Predict the structure of Membrane protein.
Amino acid sequence: MSPDTLVSWLDLLGTFVFGLSGAMLAVRRDLDVFGIAVLSVAAALSGGLIRDMALGATPPAALATSSYLLAALAAGGAAMIAHPRIERFTKPVMVLDALGLGLFAVTGARKALDYGLEPLPAVVLGVLSAVGGGAVRDILVAEIPRVLREEVYALAALLGAAIVVIADLAGLAPTPAAMAGAFAAAAIRILSVRLNWKAPKAPRRRD
Amino acid sequence: MSPDTLVSWLDLLGTFVFGLSGAMLAVRRDLDVFGIAVLSVAAALSGGLIRDMALGATPPAALATSSYLLAALAAGGAAMIAHPRIERFTKPVMVLDALGLGLFAVTGARKALDYGLEPLPAVVLGVLSAVGGGAVRDILVAEIPRVLREEVYALAALLGAAIVVIADLAGLAPTPAAMAGAFAAAAIRILSVRLNWKAPKAPRRRD
Amino acid sequence: MSPDTLVSWLDLLGTFVFGLSGAMLAVRRDLDVFGIAVLSVAAALSGGLIRDMALGATPPAALATSSYLLAALAAGGAAMIAHPRIERFTKPVMVLDALGLGLFAVTGARKALDYGLEPLPAVVLGVLSAVGGGAVRDILVAEIPRVLREEVYALAALLGAAIVVIADLAGLAPTPAAMAGAFAAAAIRILSVRLNWKAPKAPRRRD
C-alpha cells in the first residue's frame, strides 16, 4: 500500500470515527434517524468544510466525491443499529477519535501549506480542521464544544499541526512528518485522557 | 409568467417566509428591533450563504442583489407591526414555511449539480440550503435547531433534493423536476405536521 | 503616519480588543489556557473570516499573514496574566470594544464595495464583519450573542457601515468617510451604554 493510499484510507477512517461521535451524541439525545444523520455528517465534515471554504478550495473535498458523505452516513447507520454495543467500547472509540483528531490536524495543516499560507496560519487552520467538526456537532445540540471543556484537546491538534509545519520549514519530507504529527497528536490526546492531565488556567481573584 | 420568473418570485417568497420565522422567534424572545432584523436576515439567508460559500459561488446570491435582503427585512418589519395577527395564522405560516423548505431544497440541489457536484453531495447541499437558515436562527438564540428536534423536517428537504438529482440522472427536464421536488417536499412536511408523523429512533437499552 | 498605516494599526488594535473580549469571557468561564486561546482567536477573527469567505477573498486577511493571529493570541496572553487588572478597567475596555466595532464595520463595508457589492448588501456585510466575531464567541460558550441581547450594538455597526456606503454613493473620498463612520459607530455605542438607551420592541399582546 502506497503512503497516499494509506492516508486516503486513514482519512476515511477519521471521517467515520468523527461521524460516529456525532451519531452517538444524537442517540444519547434521543434524536430520530434524521437527527442522527445530520449530526453524523456535521461532526464528520464541518472541520474540512470550514478549512476548504477558508482556503477557497471549492468544491470542498467533503463534497467533491461521495466517499466522505458515505463514511459519515455509515457511522450514523452503525450507531443506529449497534448503539449499546458501541457505548461499551469507550476505550477503542476514544483511541480512534484521538487518531482522527491527529489525522485531521496534519492533513489540514498540510493543505494550508500547499495553498501558500504562512506557518502560524497553517497551524491554526490545521487545528480548526481537527476541532471544527466536533465544535459544530456540540453547538447543534446547544452544548459548549468539547474543545473548550476538555483538557489537552486543542493542544494535541496543535502539536500535530506544528510538527507538519516545522518539518516543512526544515525541508523534511512531508509524508513521514504527517505520520509523526498524527501519531504525536493521538498519543498526547490518549495519554492526557488516561493520566487525566490538566492544562493551566488563568490565576483568579479569591472571592 | 415564464417558469424562470415564477421560480424567482417563489424564491423571494421562500426568503420572506423564512425571514418571518426568524422575526417571529425574535419577537417571542422579546428582542428589540435590531435583534428582529438580525434573526430575520440570519434565518432567511444563511442557508443560501453556506451553499454558495461551499460551491465557491461568490458573491453569494443572497448578497449579489438587494432583493433577498429586502425580502428578509420586509419579513422583520411585518413581524414588528403585525406580530399578534401573524401568530394567529399558524396554519398558513406553516404551509408557507413548508413551501420555502421545498423551494430551497430543490434550488440548492439544482445549483450544486450546475457546479458539477456528484449526486449524493448535491442532495446533501440541497438539504443544507433548506435547513441551514433555520439552524443558524435557532443556534443564535441558544436552542437546539428545529431540524434536529422536529420529525420529518430534514426528510422533506431530502425528498425534494433527491427528486431533482434523480431526474437529472434520468435526463429529465430540470424545471418540472424542480416543481415536483418542491411540491413533494412541501406536501410531506405538511402531512407530517398534520398527521403527527414520527421518524424511527435508535433502539435504546432500558434503564 | 499615512492614513493607510493608521488604518492598519487601528485594525490590529481592533483585533486585539476583540480578542480580549473572547479571552476575558473564557477566563470568567474558568476555561484552561487552550480554551482561552480558542475564544480569543474566534472572537477576533471570525467576523473577518465570514466576510472574506462570503466575498470569495481567499485566503482571508485573517490567515494571509500572521499578524492578526498574533494580535489575537497576544490578547489571550494578556488576559491570562492580567485578568483581574483588566476586569477593573471596564470603561477603557468598553471604549476600545466600541472602537473595534466601528473599525470592523467600516473596513467590512469598504471591502464589500471594493468587491462590487451593491449598497444594501455592503452595509449588511459590514455589520456582519463587526458583530460576527462576538456572535461566534458567545455561541461557543452556549450563550445568546450580545448583538441580540444588547441595545444599540447592531445599530452602531449599521451606522458606521452606512456612512461608508452613502459617502461612496455620493462620490466622497473613502478614507475620511471610513474615519467618520468608525467614529460615529463608536460614539453611538459608547453613548448608548452610558445613557442606557433602549431600542424599540414589537408591541405584544398582554397576557
